[in-house]
From TrEMBL:
Its cofactor is Zn(2+). Residues 40-203 form the Succinylglutamate desuccinylase/Aspartoacylase catalytic domain. InterPro entries: AstE_AspA_cat (IPR055438). It comes from the Bacteria. The keyword Hydrolase applies. Keywords: Hydrolase, Metal-binding, Zinc. It holds the Pfam family AstE_AspA_cat. It comes from Halomonas koreensis. This is Succinylglutamate desuccinylase/aspartoacylase family protein.
Length: 341
């Protein structure tokens, strides 16, 4: 295998017993390799693409302290270490004055995040992995779920062991899981995102740790059966604020906001959302402060939601996920995703 762009640490036998000093000792992004780095095929887990989503890194640290010995080579990338360690630790999506790393896996590769994304792509191409799992936390509290850009038996078999729902999306945002569509060398590799749950949920760390243990014990991914109760939802819509719109979270309408979302909107990450549920309150522009553009560039917001006496309601029964109560994430990323139930 050709030399990699990022540092490689093989089978770390000694590490600090606390996660933050351990990450500080890395000095930046790094590959942690368990097993013979020259053996193959390689399975890859990526974590800390977002610095405020630490469950994967925390689970990895705890697992490494146990001295694991995977049956197959396992490569784990700790990506946005700088963003994760920016004060206060594990609270920033990315370092100040930088870009969201998980929107940088396509040209132009500008700024530090773009350069790091390009280095990660080069390393993955050089590795020719058999699997890539990207560990994240959800923006709000909620159950674990998986996201992929296509259906694949290995993706469904692995996802079904840690969550009940797989989202298959046609949206293209520049994320790592889109690489099979852009890099011919990765075209046949199953790549998916596992959203482990909220960053403060202990269950999220258990999901991430469960993935490491499963991959350490497994010898043949193709032999894993797909759980029969995995729900597959296709082509969710990303609900965003229009540029310049202001959102706040409260228990009643805020006259200074274009949209006031219910203070516990993240409760809708579980189960279904009925048209009877009030999701928030709209300002003078009504639904005009929102957009939901599909993979073909069509505006779909009016198919999903409607205004009733100034309140925001689903037009039909929906499943919402990734609903956040963080106004900064809502402004810079999205409010939530929605798909008809």
């Amino acid at each position: 295998m050709a030399a990699l762009s990022l540092p490689v640490i093989v089978a770390p036998s000694r590490l600090h017993d606390q996660a933050v000093p351990w990450l500080q000792s890395l000095g930046g992004p790094a590959w942690i390799v368990l097993g013979d780095p020259e053996a193959g095929p390689r399975w890859v887990v990526v974590t800390l693409l977002h610095g405020n989503e630490p469950s994967g890194a925390l689970a990895l640290h705890r697992w490494l302290l146990e001295g694991p010995r995977p049956r197959r080579p396992l490569w784990v990338l700790l990506a946005n270490v700088v963003g994760a360690l920016a004060h206060p630790v594990f609270t920033r999506r990315h370092a100040p004055d930088d870009r969201d790393l998980n929107r940088c896996f396509r040209a132009p590769f500008a700024g530090p995040s773009g350069e790091l994304a390009r280095a990660i792509i080069a390393d993955l191409v050089a590795m020719a992995p058999e699997l890539v799992v990207d560990l994240h936390n959800t923006s709000g509290n909620g159950p674990a779920f998986a996201v992929a850009t296509r259906r694949h038996p290995v993706i469904e078999a692995l996802a079904g062991r840690f969550c009940e729902r797989l989202i298959v999306t046609d949206l293209r945002l520049g994320s790592l899981m889109e690489l099979p569509h852009r890099e011919p060398a990765l075209a046949d590799c199953p790549v998916f995102t596992l959203e482990c749950g909220g960053a403060l949920q202990l269950e999220a760390r258990e999901v991430a740790g469960g993935l490491f243990r499963l991959l350490a014990d497994c010898q043949d991914l193709s032999a894993l059966p797909c759980p029969p109760d995995l729900e597959v939802l296709v082509h969710p819509l990303r609900v965003e604020l229009r540029p310049g719109a202001v959102v706040v979270y409260d228990r009643g309408p805020n006259p200074d906001a274009d949209l006031t979302l219910w203070a516990r909107i993240d409760e809708h990450n579980r189960g279904v959302t009925s048209p009877q549920a009030c999701l928030g309150w709209l300002g003078p522009a009504g639904l005009g402060c929102l957009q939901a553009i599909d993979g073909e560039g069509r505006e779909r917001i009016a198919e999903l939601f409607e205004a009733r006496d100034g309140r925001l309601h689903a037009r039909r029964t929906l499943r919402l996920f990734m609903a956040t109560t963080n106004s900064e994430i809502a402004r810079s990323d999205c409010l939530f995703y929605a798909v008809p139930a």
